[in-house]
Amino acid sequence: xxxxxxxxxxxxxxxxDNELYEALIGADLSGRELRVALAxxxxxxGYNTETARIPAATIASLxxxxxxxxxRIIGELIRQRVLYRAGGSKAPIGISPVSEWKxxxxxxxxxxxxxxxxxxxxxxxxxxxxxxIKDSKDINSLTGVVDAERxxxxxxxxxxxAKPVRQKSSMPACPHQAIVDxxxxxxxxxxxxxxxxxTRKRHLQSRWRENAVHRDxxxxxxxxxxxxxxxxxxxxxAGRMGAKPFRASxxxxxxxxxxxxxxxxNYHA
Length: 269
Known about the structure:
By secondary structure, the protein is mostly helical. It has helices at 18-26, 31-44, 56-63, 67-79, 176-186, 198-209, 217-228, 250-253, 256-263, and strands at 83-85, 93-95, 126-130, 143-147. The strands form two sheets. The chain has a two-stranded antiparallel ribbon. A two-stranded antiparallel sheet has the order 3-4.
């Protein structure tokens, strides 16, 4: 078995400059910051561009982070000059040159303190108890020595076993109709959903449950916004050999494999 992957047999790859690769390995970034930086690199260098306008929901899905945290982490990386924006707050972002990075120190080595071991010596194997005086001649023997190991042990009171408490799931229910309404609002040019049947509900439920990022209507608003920005998915690209232009349907968009491709930006130039 070999660890070398033949590139011609893969589904594609993203090149990374050696200087950037080594800088990321040694950078004192948090785990979340590193994941966001790698996601930005994936959507810039992976598409042979220095900067890109990447929706927060896309980074959140790829990096397995909560969407509301992504903007904050991007802001931190920009402040530390790991990332930069080519303009205002909504402008495309990219990876800054390594020489410009100003990363905050996050970890300090603490001197190990010697462990102190306490030892307790027990000397209770023999315990003195007063003996029962049967005769006056035994009056001079007021105490006797009793072996504690032979004394009957006091059994602890039995504690009834606690029954496990079944916790209810905190996952919110999938708002099927609200997602369909967003689809109609943002993509009126695509085929409308006339019937919200059980099959469509199951597919929506699967997309909703597979990632915490997806359990937010703002994610679905951004998702349909990405579809709208794609000329191919909205039927603005001529079909091959005189065929009709392709237009994505609601069922196509909530299909598992197509969903991943759209989120990863495969249908954007």
